[in-house]
C-alpha cells in the first residue's frame, strides 16, 4: 500500500465515516479494500437507506464491507429502487446490469 493511498483511506474512514482509531486497528482489513469501489459506495448506500428508514436493522459495518458484491447487491441495493441510480453512479455500473435477475455483478 502506498502511504498516500493509506492516508486517503484513513482520512475518509475517520472523518466521513466517523470510525474511531481503535475500531480501525481491530478491523485493519478495511485498509485492504478499495475506497472507490467498495468502501465509499457501500457507506453511501447504507447512509441513504438509513435516512429513508428502509433498513430494518443496523448491519455491522465489518459484515457489510466483507460480504461479496452479489450478496451486497441482493441485500442492500436491488430490493430498493430508490438507491439503484446512486449505486450505479458510485460504482460506474449500468442500471441494466444492476437490475438483471442473474447473479452477474459489475466488475
Short structural description:
The protein is mostly helical. It is built from seven helices and no strands. Helix 3 packs antiparallel against helix 6.
Would you give an account of this structure?
It is a single chain. By secondary structure, this protein is mainly alpha-helical. 64% of the residues lie in helices and 0% in strands. The protein has helices spanning 3-16, 21-26, 35-51, 61-66, 69-77, 81-91, 95-99. The longest helix is centred in the middle third of the chain and has 17 residues, at 35-51.
Quick tags:
7 helices; mainly alpha; 64% helix; 107 residues
Secondary structure tally, helices: 7
Number of strands: 0
Question: Share of helix among residues?
Answer: 55-70%
Given as residue ranges, the uncertain stretches (5+ residues, pLDDT < 50) are: none
How far the N terminus sits from the C terminus, by CA atoms, comes to: 22 Å
Over all CA atoms, what is the radius of gyration? 14 Å
- Output mean pLDDT: 88
SSE arrangement:
Blueprint: H1 3-16, H2 21-26, H3 35-51, H4 61-66, H5 69-77, H6 81-91, H7 95-99
